[in-house]
């Protein structure tokens, strides 16, 4: 009889399944603001009172802005982001990250220089930010520091917030100790590991005092 405490072996997704799961992840991020836009339009269709109309228009404006920010972030974090060998400006990555993550509860301290990096390193950074954000579900501060310099630069993200915690199985998914479950939530840290491997790096998620760190080195 096998040891019940041992993690179950899960077959890694093939390319088609990986693409499908990443698409599901993007759809999951967009469904809320797009749904809010639809709700606002339905209110307008009902010929509402002036105050209800203004509320609906404000909801549509805010939700459209949120949907646009999430689309731009997902395009950079999960999309092709240019041709093979392309480089991405870290300044653009900072703009996308702030638009997607800073929501009144979570803020970013960006200590990286502005320079061009290979696209997979920038995609890795953005996916590390998503992982780090999950460790502070009540909000807080994400501090991004460089490790090294130039095109071989890697990253360290420190997450500080009330009740910062390690999400279940995320550390194992990042390290490769556990295979990915077939759902859109687990595929993102798994994809982060694939990006790190493509850059010749390893991603680690670990507690450090009252903070949680995500490091690629």
Automatic annotation (TrEMBL):
GO molecular function: transferase activity
Keyword Transferase: yes
Alphabetized InterPro entries for the sequence: ChpT_C (IPR018762), HATPase_C_sf (IPR036890)
Annotated Histidine phosphotransferase ChpT C-terminal domain residues: 91-210
UniProt cross-references to Pfam families, sorted A to Z: HPTransfase
Keywords, in A-Z order: Transferase
UniProt name for this protein: Histidine phosphotransferase
Organism, as annotated: Bradyrhizobium hipponense
